[in-house]
Specification:
The structure holds two protein chains of two kinds. Chain A has 14 helices and no strands. By secondary structure, chain A is an all-alpha fold. The longest helix of chain A is centred in the N-terminal third of the chain and has 35 residues. The mean pLDDT of chain A is 92. In chain B, the strands form three sheets. Chain B has a six-stranded mixed sheet, with helices on both faces. A four-stranded antiparallel sheet of chain B has the order 2-1-4-5, with helices on one face. In chain B, strands 11-12 form a two-stranded antiparallel sheet. Classes of the chains: A mainly alpha, B alpha/beta.
Chain lengths: 338, 256
C-alpha cells in the first residue's frame, strides 16, 4: 500500500472518532446543543467564561464524560489486544479472550458479587481473575511440550474457559435470585453505564502499561505471525516474545473488562476490518485498529443508551452489528481472511 | 565473507526417538550439498538440527568453527538462512515486507527497519530478479514466485549459508529449473547451499556433493557421480533406476 491511502485511512478514522465523540456528548436523555458543548470545552480548556447551565456541565463532566472515555478506552484496548492475538495465533478468527481472560474476569466479578462486595472489589476481582486465568492457561499450555505451542495454548484456553464457565453457572445457580442474580447477569452482559471517574483512573494505567510493550515491539510482532521455525531461524526468541505479548494483551483486556464487563466482537471484528483497510503490517495496523475500536465501541454505547427507553446491553448490539458484518466479509472479500 | 558449515558425529532426532547418527559434514563457500532420502527419512529433522532449531542429540554443529549451540540466535541468523518447505502464507504481507523480515537479526528489539535495511531487502529482491513482485502480496504468489521470495529473504538476512528444504517441491517444471538455476548461481557467488529434493537428477544439475539418507539413518556421502548409482538408489527408494550419461550430462531414469 502506498503512503497516501495509509494516511487517508488514519485521517478518516480519526475524523470519525472526533465526530462520534461530539455526537456522543450531545445526544441522550438530556440533549445538549453543540454550541453549548463548544462553550463548555472553551471554558475547561482555555478558562473562557461559562455561559451554559450548571446542569449541562454536570451531564458532561460527571455522566457522559467518564462513560465516553470508558468506551474509547475499552474499545481501543480490546482492538489492540485482538490485533496482537490475531497476528500471534496466525488466525484472523481469534479474539482477545482466546486465553480465558474474559472467563477468568467473569468468575472474579461473579465471586465478588456472590459475596456481596463493593463495586470496587468487583472490579478488582474481575481484573485479578482475568490475569489469573491467563496465567493458568499459559502455564498449562507451556507445560505440554510435545505439541505445537500455539495449539497447546488455544486448547488450554478452551478447556479452562469451559471449566470457568461451569463455575460461573454454579455461582449463578446458588446466588440469591432477587439481589445477586440480576447483578451477575447485568455484569456478564457488559455495560458502561456505571463507569465512574475513579474506575477510569484505576483501569487506564494498566491498559497503558499493556500498550507500551505492544508499541515498542510493533515491528517484531510481524515475525510472530510466521511459523515458529521460520521466526527462530530469522533470529527471534519466539517463546519469550510470545510471553511478552500475552502479558501485554492480557493486561489491556483485563483492565478493559474490569470496567466494562464482557463486550464481545470488538476484539475480533475491528482488527479484521482494520487489516482489510491497511494490510497486516503490525506497526501500521495497531494505530488504525485502536482508532476504529474506540470509534466502534463509542458508537455502540451511544446507540445502547439512546435507541430504546431502557439501555440495550452493548454486548448485544456488538453481536447484532458484528454478525452480519462478519458474514458479509466472509462472503464478499476474497482476502478477508488475511 | 567465507562461511563453513560443519557437523561432527552429529546425532539428530528427538529425545528417545533418534532419527540419524554419526553424520560428518563439512560445507564450504561455493559448495552445494544435495540431500536425498525417502519420505520420513529425516531430511527436515537434519535441517532443523543444522539450523539449531532442534538440539543435537549427539555430536555438534559448527558454524565458522564455533559450536552452534553456544551462539546467540541472532548470530546464527546472520550466518545461516532457512527456506522451509513450501507452506501457504497466512497474512497478506507484500513481498517487500516479507523480505524485509529477513533483516530481523540486524534490527534492534524495539526498532523498525531503517533505510539501510530497506536497501538490503531491495538488493536481495533484485538479486533474484523478482523486482516485479516486490509490491505483490505473498498470499497471491505462485509456488515458484513464493520460493524465490523466501530465498530473497535469506539473502536480506545476510546469511552466507543457505538451507533449503525441498525448494522445488510442488513446483512446475519451469519453476523447478528456475530455482535450481538460482542455487547454482548463488554457489558461484560464494554462498554455501544445502538443499533437499525428491528428484536425484537435480543433484547432477546443481550439486557438488550428495548426502543420501536411508531409512534407519544409514548414510552415503560423496560427489553426485559416486553416490547416485542404480545400486544406491535401489537401496534407498526400493525401485530400479538407470543412471544414464547423455552428451556428458547424467540423468536418472526409473524403470517401471
Amino acid at each position: 500500500m502506498t503512503r497516501r491511502p495509509r494516511v487517508l485511512a488514519y485521517a478518516l478514522a480519526l475524523a470519525a472518532l472526533l465526530l462520534l465523540t461530539a455526537l456522543a456528548f450531545a445526544v441522550g436523555r438530556f440533549p445538549l446543543a453543540l454550541g453549548d458543548l463548544a462553550a463548555l470545552a472553551a471554558n475547561k480548556l482555555f478558562g473562557a467564561s461559562l455561559a451554559v447551565p450548571p446542569s449541562a456541565e454536570t451531564v458532561v463532566m460527571q455522566v457522559r464524560g467518564p462513560r465516553i472515555l470508558a468506551a474509547l478506552l475499552v474499545g481501543a484496548a480490546l482492538a489492540a489486544a485482538g490485533t496482537a492475538y490475531q497476528g500471534m495465533f496466525r488466525n484472523p478468527l481469534v479474539s482477545p479472550d482466546i486465553l480465558g481472560v474474559s472467563a477468568g474476569a467473569a468468575l472474579g466479578a461473579v465471586l465478588a458479587i456472590f459475596f456481596s462486595q463493593s463495586a470496587l472489589v468487583i472490579q478488582l476481582g474481575a481484573f485479578a481473575g482475568g490475569l489469573a486465568a491467563v496465567a493458568v492457561v499459559y502455564a498449562v499450555g507451556a507445560s505440554v511440550r510435545r505439541h505445537d505451542p500455539i495449539l497447546a495454548l488455544i486448547l488450554a484456553g478452551v478447556v479452562i474457559g469451559t471449566l470457568l464457565g461451569s463455575m460461573i453457572a454454579l455461582l449463578k445457580y446458588l446466588a440469591d435470585p432477587y439481589n445477586q442474580l440480576p447483578a451477575i447477569t447485568f455484569w456478564l452482559l457488559g455495560s458502561l453505564a456505571t463507569v465512574a471517574p475513579v474506575d477510569l483512573a484505576l483501569a487506564a494505567p494498566f491498559a497503558l502499561a499493556g500498550l507500551v510493550p505492544l508499541y515498542l515491539l510493533r515491528w517484531r510482532m510481524n515475525l510472530l505471525s510466521l511459523p515458529d521455525d521460520e521466526a527462530r531461524a530469522l533470529g527471534v526468541p519466539v517463546g519469550r516474545l510470545r510471553l511478552a505479548v500475552v502479558c501485554a494483551a492480557t493486561l489491556m483486556t483485563a483492565a478493559a473488562v474490569a470496567i466494562s464487563g464482557i463486550i464481545g466482537w470488538v476484539g475480533l471484528l475491528i482488527p479484521h476490518a482494520a487489516r482489510l483497510l491497511i494490510g497486516p503490517e503490525f506497526s501500521r495496523l495497531l494505530p488504525l485498529s485502536m482508532l476504529l475500536g474506540a470509534a466502534f465501541l463509542l458508537a455502540v454505547d451511544t446507540l445502547s443508551r439512546t435507541i430504546a427507553p431502557i439501555e440495550v446491553p452493548p454486548g448485544v448490539l456488538t453481536a447484532l452489528i458484528g454478525t452480519p458484518f462478519f458474514l458479509w466479509l466472509f462472503a464478499s472479500a476474497r482476502r478477508a481472511w488475511q | 565473507m567465507a562461511v563453513k558449515l560443519e557437523a561432527r558425529a552429529l546425532g539428530y532426532g528427538y529425545p528417545g526417538r533418534p532419527v540419524g547418527r554419526g553424520l560428518d559434514l563439512s560445507l564450504d563457500a561455493g559448495e552445494v550439498l544435495c540431500v536425498l532420502g525417502p519420505n520420513g527419512g529425516g531430511k527436515t529433522t537434519l535441517f532443523r538440527t543444522l539450523l539449531g532449531l532442534l538440539p543435537a542429540q549427539a555430536g555438534a554443529v559448527l558454524l565458522d568453527g564455533r559450536a552452534l549451540e553456544a551462539m546467540p540466535r541472532g548470530d546464527v541468523a546472520r550466518r545461516v538462512g532457512y527456506v522451509p518447505q513450501g507452506h501457504a502464507a497466512q497474512f497478506a504481507f507484500t513481498v517487500r515486507e516479507a523480505v524485509l523480515m529477513g533483516r530481523t537479526a540486524h534490527v534492534s528489539l524495539f526498532a523498525a527497519p531503517g533505510a539501510a535495511d530497506r536497501e538490503a531487502a531491495d538488493r536481495a529482491i533484485s538479486a533474484l530478479g523478482i523486482d516485479g513482485l516486490a509490491g505483490r502480496v505473498v498470499t497471491e504468489l505462485s509456488g515458484g514466485e513464493r520460493q524465490l521470495a523466501m530465498i530473497a529473504r535469506t539473502l536480506a538476512q545476510g546469511a552466507r549459508a543457505l538451507v533449503l528444504d525441498e525448494p522445488t517441491a510442488s513446483l512446475d517444471f519451469g519453476n523447478q529449473v528456475r530455482v535450481l538455476r538460482q542455487i547454482a548461481r548463488l554457489a558461484a557467488e560464494g554462498y554455501a547451499v544445502v538443499f533437499s529434493t525428491h528428484d536425484p537428477g537435480q543433484a547432477f544439475l546443481a550439486a557438488s556433493r550428495v548426502l543420501l539418507l536411508a531409512q534407519g539413518g544409514a548414510l552415503r556421502q560423496g560427489t553426485p557421480q559416486e553416490v547416485i548409482t542404480g545400486e544406491n538408489l535401489r537401496a534407498v527408494y526400493g525401485v530400479e533406476v538407470r543412471v544414464l550419461t547423455i552428451d556428458g550430462a547424467r540423468a536418472c531414469l526409473p524403470v517401471l
